[in-house]
Amino acid sequence: MANRFLRPNLIHRFSTVSPVGPPTTIIPEILSFDQPKPEVDLDLSDQARLFASVPISTLLRSTAILHATSIGPMVDLGSWLMSSKLMDTTVTRDLVLRIVKGTFYDHFCAGEDAAAAARRVSSVYESTGLKGMLVYGVEHAEDGGACDENIQKFIETVEAAKTLPSSHLSSVVVKITAICPMNVLKRVSDLLRWQYKNPNFKLPWKLNSFPVFSGLSPLYHTTSEPEPLTVEEERELEKAHERLKSVCLRCQESNVPLLIDAEDTILQPAIDYMAYWSAIMFNSDKDRPIVYNTIQAYLKDAGERLHLALRESEKMNVPIGFKLVRGAYMSSEAKLADSLGYKSPVHDTIQNTHDCYNDCMSFLMEKASNGSGIAVILATHNTDSGKLGARKASELGINKENGKIEFAQLYGMSDALSFGLKRAGFNVSKYMPYGPVDTAIPYLIRRAYENRGMMSTGALDRQLMRKELKRRVMAW
Fold first, then answer.
1. Strand pairing of 131-136 and 169-174?
2. Which reaction does it catalyse?
């Protein structure tokens, strides 16, 4: 049986989708490729070519910082210190933040305000040809007052983006958790899950959106029927929609794409719901969607949800953008599921995650290449996925310059992959968070843990940077 939403040059096995209520599994199983992949210029071994544009001072700092974050005990000590009560002491806090700012913060973040971040975007593009994704680095808001403050920062981000040439900037990023109170997002997610279990359950506040669940979606967070939203909760949700609408309008007027970041599964249904609502509202240009949602491929239901959302967008003739990532909340997902007596919603093995990412990537690239209103940002630090994506683009004859396909990595990480993809002719961006140093601490701790160990994401960069430094020293 064939599925028109899966890429045609693969063979898949899956079951059907029920038109009412929770669908059954449609996750594809890749059996074989029927076409050889053409060679593509994505050589990540020649450090002299990859890092030719990087000043020696930057190479020295980057090598030192990535080496420091590869030392497990150092990462553990630094994480403990930045999360400890010692940070409540003014002298200690000021000292730690000064050290962090001159090292890890400057390596992984773009600046303390929107103007500084825009300048960093320009300098990165002018020296390397890599674009920037601007994001205000606040993550969670507990009340409406904090949300009102945060939306002003996101609007400032759009205003800063408008000062940059379009060639320098890929997009701006918004976090729904920063513009809608966390308790409201959790309540909305609970109610959406309960409606998925019981389709006759009414949600009078619900607006038009795409599907946010599939047959594999984790529903264990909501074990009993939730109470309806209170009047105050409905008011807060309406305000959140207005905040999101305000930033979407500015992005639409400026023709600046807006990426909506993902969170963990306890909140993600509400985020997907709001993301798809805004896509329906603001994605009117078939060639350049404004709103992008994020799909986390480490979730077992990622493939199903992607196909269902795209199916509905095609029915409604609404273009859509997706940012595809692997995911960043593995530990918290596993702990929460275990505490409730359920299996983790994350794939059981890293290979399953790789397979899911690569399958979703290939499917999205095919959709984007056939003239449909799809745009894709392939966010990955995995070199195998980068090489596969480059080969797939060559196989499909994708126009690398039209913006329908783009690669991305975090600022300060996977530079070898970024430079290699850029040399191969692709649009490549760096995710560049900004904000006060103290607000960036949770983000920096996550980056440190990603880079720890000899087999970490930063291992290839460290190896190639050291070789390039040695080459330059020997050439003197």
1. parallel
2. L-proline + a quinone = (S)-1-pyrroline-5-carboxylate + a quinol + H(+)
Q: How far is CA 319 from CA 67, 166, 272, in A?
A: 43, 21, 16
Q: Could you tell me the two tokens for 36?
A: 């050889």
CATH code: domain of residue 416: 3.20.20.220
User: CA torsion sign, 10 to 14 to 17 to 23?
Assistant: negative
Give CA separation, 132 vs 125, 172, 293, in Å: 8, 9, 18
CA angle 2/193/29 to nearest 5° reads 25
Q: Where are the alpha helices (DSSP H) in 255-382?
A: 268-282, 302-315, 330-339, 350-369
The predicted model scores a pTM of: 0.86
Q: How far is CA 102 from CA 77, 98, 99, 124, in A?
A: 18, 6, 6, 18
Within a domain: 240: yes
Q: At 428, which helix (H) or strand (E)?
A: strand 428-434
Beta strand pairing call for 131-136 and 428-434: parallel
pLDDT in tens, 272-323: 999 999 999 999 877 789 999 999 999 999 999 999 999 999 999 999 999 9
What pLDDT, in 10s, does the model give residues 148-169? 999 999 999 999 999 999 999 9
Chain length of the chain? 476
pLDDT of residue 40: 57
Q: What value does the mean pLDDT take over residues 420-437?
A: 94
In the chain, the number of structural domains is 1
Q: Find the domain containing 127 and state its range.
A: 111-434
- What is d(CA 134, CA 174) in angstroms, rounded to the nearest whole number? 9
Residue 27 has pLDDT above 60, yes or no: no
What value does the mean pLDDT of the chain take? Answer: 87
